[in-house]
Amino acid sequence: DIVPTRNYIMMWKIQLIVALTITFSCTTQTNGFPLSLTSYQNSGSVSSRSHTLTRIFKPVKSTLYSSLIRAKKRIVEEEVEENKTNEDVLIQNTSQKINNLKLDVTNSIQVKAISVYVLATIGLAKMGIIGQYTNELILLDLRVTFLVGVASVIFVKTITRLSADGILQSRDSRKIIHTFSAPIFMIFWPLFSDAWGARLFAGMITFFQALRLFLAGTKRGGSEGNELASAISRSGKPEEALGGPFIYTVVLFMTILLFWRDNLSGVIVLSTMAAGDGAADIVGRRLGKNNKWLFNKDKSIAGTLAFFIASALCSIGILWWFSFNGVVTLSSPFLFIAQKFALISALCAMVELAPFGDDNWSVPISAAVLSMILL
Description:
Elements: H1 2-25, E1 29-30, E2 33-34, H2 46-126, H3 135-164, H4 170-187, H5 198-217, H6 222-232, H7 244-258, H8 265-287, E3 292-293, E4 296-300, H9 301-325, H10 334-351, H11 359-374
Helix pairs in contact: 1-2, 2-5, 3-4, 3-5, 3-6, 4-8, 5-6, 5-7, 7-8, 7-11, 8-9, 8-10, 8-11, 9-10, 10-11
């Protein structure tokens, strides 16, 4: 609708140019001829008059032709510019629609998955399959789950925002999340009910986080997924979210289901994997440049000591917290178990030095096996 209107206006401009050109070229006329022709009107020479007309109107013809060319060129340029603008708008609108569609699909997957998990867990609790549940206990575990979820989101969002703003490096933000996620989560465990199915309610958070990491790693997590992947991956590439971070979350989920608060193995497994491995990386990169191990130049003595100290302190601290809240009954004196935790932490620090395998698998599996032998 816009192009015909512009062309119509342009044609009027062309007509106006023609009229003005003729007017200025032949401003004064006598018997229909310009004054410059009056001296020839009585000569009787047709050829002379024809030559004179040609000489006079040739500039007019040239001016008119040039005006037409310029007008046509301007019309073409305006049409090209308008078509280009329309194409840019169309591309932008299409891209926006695709992004909105991806976001809708991502949100749909997340909502459906967590809804199925929550409804299935509540249904099993009401039927008494996962423990002696009452409506009050179900509401209690749901409230604690919601509280843990809010705390988890706030923690991760804070770290990812600091990373996105350039305050924290991507690798530091990844290791901070790695180091503190599991210990912070374990701090909330005493708030859940004593029913066996409480572990399923607690597992909702890690299940949802694993799903988010999977979608982010497969580039289907939208802008939030990209932000999360950037914060927890070494290079900022989304594919790395399916490596260590995803394995970490899966191990956390399996530890909750298998050990929970009933078995102290879960405490040492998560402490070595989270606090120990995370502290080893953070400290090793800063203080371990000049004290590398002879058999593994990628590991440092400073990082190994940090692993041992952080893992031992975290596991002993969580053990005290559980004992203080009465959610675990110690079969041996507290100090005796604390010594065993320290020993397991030291042995897992040695396992972490192995130049093969993934620490996110090897360390927790080693901690689980050692705890079953020593505890």
